[in-house]
Amino acid sequence: MYELLKTEGRAKRGVLHTVHGDIQTPVFMNVGTAAAIKGAVSTEDLEQIKTQVQLSNTYHLHVRPGDEIVKKMGGLHKFMSWDKPILTDSGGFQVFSLAGLRKIKEEGVTFHSHVDGRKIFMGPEESMQIQSNLGSTIAMAFDECPPALAERDYVMRSVERTTRWLKRCKLEMARLNQLEDTVNPHQLLFGINQGAIYADIRIEHAKQIADMELPGYAVGGLAVGESHEQMYYILEEVVPYLPKNKPTYLMGVGTPANILEAVERGVDFFDCVYPSRNGRHGHVYTNNGKLNLFNKKFELDARPIEEGCGCPACRRYSRAYIRHLLKAKEMLGMRLCVLHNLYFYNTMMEEIRAALDEGRFAEYKKQKLDQMQSDV
Question: What domain range includes position 119?
Fold first, then answer.
């Protein structure tokens, strides 16, 4: 159950009560596609860097090791030794990202596995069954994510099919939650709003799915080719049509600035690969902007990545040492950068929640954006 604690303008401060614990929102979900955060990040690390929710990928875990294996191991929580909430996405994004490997029909989508080329069929029922086997806290509905700049006619047909698929997801999830051997009988289903950058299509779709009384709603199909301005415009238009008393999740977004702008527009769940992907390439976030630790100017820099940061990297190691590790291709260099970036994101979300609690989010947002523009 989602509890709306406070609002400031459209910005929401809430808490989602789940079977695996409470999620304080706004929240950034740390992306562990194959049941692990890339960069050799352990469950102990996640606890240390203030992670609330871990996100895993339905399609990838179905391909390897196989969701049946995860179920036999007691579900995803036991498998990866993580007892806090987990969200699994539905495999719908792979319909978009594996465009060259798939074929879409009313029943569902036929993929060729990116691992071994074998044929996989996934529709709404299959996606729900896989996610039920994984036993995640929150399962995402199976949808099609059309490219942001797709033709209007295509988007209309795609969104109509996504609505039909959502109804099938809801029925199947209800059935699975009743089974005796289900891993998590309290699994929650979030619906996904689509419509590319056509505000009217998105609004109509939002109204239709809001009527389905789901535990939460996502805005999908953004950050896939449109400009930041187009994304913010769509959020301004569509979020008011999603239930205010349910969590609103912006999928796959984004930069610290994207998150601040989206919180202001009423979004309270986020996920993105940026912090871990950038960290693996030596790009680290600070309150004064991003640093590239490969730069020669850090060769003799004895300071931590960011003064005053409490992450495992900044508590012990210098920029010079981490730069050396990265240059030497030592895995520890990547790991420290990923830990720092995730800690930075999780801490920023804490700050956002505190600012909303105290009614000073607008002031915090302006200050944070101004600060991050500056040079280190």
Answer: 2-272
Reduced to 3 states (helix: H, G, I; strand: E, B; else coil), residue 191 is strand
The per-residue pLDDT of the chain, averaged, comes to 95
Clarify whether residues 229 and 332 are in a common domain: no
Q: Are 79 and 168 found together in one domain?
A: yes
Does the annotation flag 92 for ligand binding?
yes
Domain termination site, one of 272, 296, 322:
272
Statement to judge: residues 221 and 343 lie in one domain: no
What's the whole-number mean pLDDT along residues 89-106?
77
User: Does 288 share its domain with 340?
Assistant: yes
272 assigned to a ligand binding site? no
User: In degrees rounded to 5, what are phi and psi of residue 224?
Assistant: -130, 35
Indicate if 89 belongs to the active site. Answer: yes
Based on the residue annotation, tell me whether 211 is a catalytic residue of this protein: no
Q: Residue 145 annotated as binding?
A: no
Say if residue 221 carries a ligand binding annotation: yes
| β-sheet bridge partners, residue 216 | 190
- Nearest by Cα to 127 from 111, 115, 110, 142: 142
Instruction: Find all residues with CB under 8 Å of 225, minimum gap 6, and list them.
Output: 147, 148, 149
Query: What are the pLDDT digits (tens) for 106-160?
Result: 999 887 888 888 888 999 999 999 999 999 999 999 999 888 889 999 999 999 9
For the chain, what is the domain count? 2
Q: State the catalytic residue, choosing from 45, 67, 89, 268.
A: 89
Within 10 angstroms of residue 48's Cβ, the number of other Cβ atoms is 15
pLDDT in tens, 295-335: 999 999 999 999 999 999 999 999 999 999 999 999 999 99
266 and 283 fall within a common domain: no
167 plus 302 within the same structural domain: no
**Token pair of 248 as six digits:** 């609103």
Verify that 283 and 267 share a domain, yes or no: no
